[in-house]
Design goal:
Length: about 450
């Protein structure tokens, strides 16, 4: 979040929760639709694009390089006029990625192969602290030249576009951002590229690049080897973006926790590389039904009905992490309200998100009286004691803001939340929806 902060938001404790909610478009799919549309030939239309700060950052960067993108607003179908695989122009100023790690990392891959052109990428205070070498290092194996502070790890980053070579590249972490950057670079390399991940991360790029006409094959154990043959031009598509399961997660946990709650979250993306939250909620014994399973533009979608019921503590580790990495903050809230000890491990990646989410969630929930212990790679939470209202702070992190909102609802006594506007990074209507569903 870019530094601004109003008065703390009052968060009332208690109240019911019922009705239907349609969460905004998937953030990961929204970024990709804009990016791939910009380098395709012809027009891409995007229905359901997330009208939030992060995709707006991606669109602004692409516009600065010549792609025409209609204004991003709620309920609008967005049109992108593609400039073709090599049509992005050198921008005359710094590309501002705002708070968005996905924008910066995917842009690095997209721009590294624009031979002879120069680009500078920067972002807000949070993004300028996040590690970028995880993209720069494997890109360097393809001949990319990316420089920055801390030996090339920290933005502002300068990219000197080069003709890249195809290569077999292993990624240092199971990260869809790193993988996607390499796949974008591979599109214009001088030979085939294979990206090998240590574990299978979300596969929206693979699905969508194929739909746009890229010559891409997925193989290896659990789809961890992705190969791209350069040369195929991309052609504009009609993309329909499903609702974001990472935004639905706040309602799923709230619906399971709040006494008497009954919520239906409609049109949620159910890509199996993203549904770890449903696996953990099942482990907890939450009452969740998946209704109207369907396929929309190459992604599985369904409606999720959740109602309140007794919950058990959970334990999960590294294996599931790529499927629920963004849901750890809200799951740490869930753990506070079930009897017994919950354990999250293998979650060190949380420390390099928009904030250090393990430290921030532990710090904020402790202010409410939670029994929560921080480890290098996770949290231990002894739940079942009631939490009290407190003066909370999102510490500028959107998912922390929304997770604390649900915790505050379950507490005894009211709370306040500083920097609550952070939610607009991924879910600008969250606060209005919370008020509506509580009525
Ligand atoms: C994203 C991948 C994940 C996730 C982020 C969005 C993406 O990050 O946390 O919110 O769109 O590719 P990592 O690739 O760092 O795991």
């Amino acid at each position: 979040m870019s530094g601004t902060s109003g008065a703390p938001r009052e968060l009332k404790a208690g109240g019911g929760l019922s009705g239907q909610v349609r969460v905004p478009g998937d953030k990961s799919i929204s970024h990709r639709a804009l990016l791939f549309g910009a380098i395709a030939e012809g027009t891409t239309t995007i229905e359901g694009l997330l009208p939030a700060e992060d995709p707006i950052s991606t669109a602004a960067c692409l516009r600065a390089m010549g792609a025409e993108i209609t204004p991003i607003a709620n309920g609008q179908v967005i049109t992108v006029q593609g400039v073709g695989l090599d049509g992005l122009q050198e921008p005359d100023s710094v590309l501002d990625c705002g708070n968005s790690g996905t924008t910066m990392r995917l842009m690095l891959g997209l721009l590294a192969g624009r031979d002879g052109r120069h680009f500078v990428l920067s972002g807000d205070d949070s993004l300028r602290r996040r590690p970028m070498q995880r993209v720069g290092q494997p890109l360097a194996l393809m001949g990319a030249e990316v420089r920055g502070r801390d030996g090339g790890n920290l933005a502002p980053l300068a990219v000197q576009g080069r003709k890249l070579r195809g290569a077999v590249v292993g990624t240092p972490v199971a990260s869809a951002q790193v993988k996607s950057a390499l796949l974008l670079a591979a599109l214009t390399a001088d030979g085939p590229t294979t990206v090998i991940e240590p574990a299978h991360s979300r596969d929206h790029s693979e699905r969508m690049l194929k739909a746009f006409g890229a010559n891409l094959e997925v193989g290896g154990e659990m789809g961890r080897h992705i190969s791209v043959r350069p040369g195929a031009s991309l052609s504009g598509q009609q993309v329909v973006v499903p609702g974001d399961i990472s935004s639905a997660a706040f309602w799923l946990v709230a619906g399971a926790l709040v006494p008497g709650a009954d919520l239906t979250v409609e049109n949620v993306g159910l890509n199996p590389t993203r549904t770890g939250i449903l696996e953990v909620l099942a482990q907890m014994g939450a009452c969740i039904d998946v209704l109207n399973r369907r396929d929309v533009a190459g992604e599985p979608v369904g409606d999720l009905r959740v109602s309140h019921g007794p919950l058990k503590p959970f334990s999960f580790g590294e294996e599931i992490m790529p499927r629920l990495v963004d849901e750890v903050p809200i799951l740490s809230v869930a753990a506070c309200f079930c009897d017994g000890e919950s354990r999250i491990s293998g979650a060190a990646e949380l420390r390099v998100k928009e904030t250090d989410r393990l430290a921030v969630m532990a710090r904020q929930l402790k202010l409410m009286g939670a029994d929560i212990e921080e480890h290098d790679d996770g949290l231990t939470i002894r739940g079942g004691k009631s939490l009290h209202g407190a003066e909370l702070d999102s510490e500028t992190d959107h998912r922390v803001a929304m997770s604390l909102a649900i915790a505050a609802m379950m507490a005894e006594g009211d709370s306040s939340l500083a920097r609550s506007e952070a939610a607009a990074v991924s879910y600008p209507t969250f606060w209005d929806e919370l008020e509506r569903l509580r009525r």
